[in-house]
């Protein structure tokens, strides 16, 4: 069995309170591309991934609308080549410790804390909503943690798919349970 080596992810944060003024200066290149998990929309801003959402056929306008709403005021330009290059570097058979992937997110302080806790869940491992709540120092806030996880703007790389219910059930997933199971299966297969 091969052991997966972990990516180094840097999380640049644009505070939600300051986002409206700051996003007007941002330029985001985006494109739809295929992954081993399924079709997705990826947004890249100044070399940082700022959006990654699974986009099954027929959902283009909905997913693109979500990108535009999350980064309102930013200049959006379709660039499939940039998105495809970024995508190919993010779906290797195993993770490589020599790569650094830069992410750009905006959110509330609590959302950022939750997303940072998700980044600490080891590759192909599972955590529960309660464990994430404990990790952010809010053990009674499992419902709020679930909401913050559901607001995650970067599928796969901020690994919300690794969070399950305490009873072992998959729970929810913003992009559907089929995609969540596919993410988990992909990681498990990468370790074998």
Q: What's the order of the H and E elements?
A: EHEEEHEHEHEHHEH
Q: Identify the CATH class of the largest domain.
A: Mainly Alpha
State the fourth-level CATH superfamily of the largest domain.
Winged helix-like DNA-binding domain superfamily/Winged helix DNA-binding domain
* Spans where pLDDT lies below 50 across 5 or more residues: 1-6
Structural class: alpha/beta
Helix content, binned percent: 25-40%
Quick one: how many beta strands?
A: 8
- Give the CATH architecture of the largest domain: Orthogonal Bundle
The major β-sheet equals: 4 strands, mixed
Stated plainly, the CATH topology of the largest domain is called: Arc Repressor Mutant, subunit A
- What is the overall number of helices? 7
Count of the domains:
2
Order of strands in the sheet with most strands: 4-3-2-5
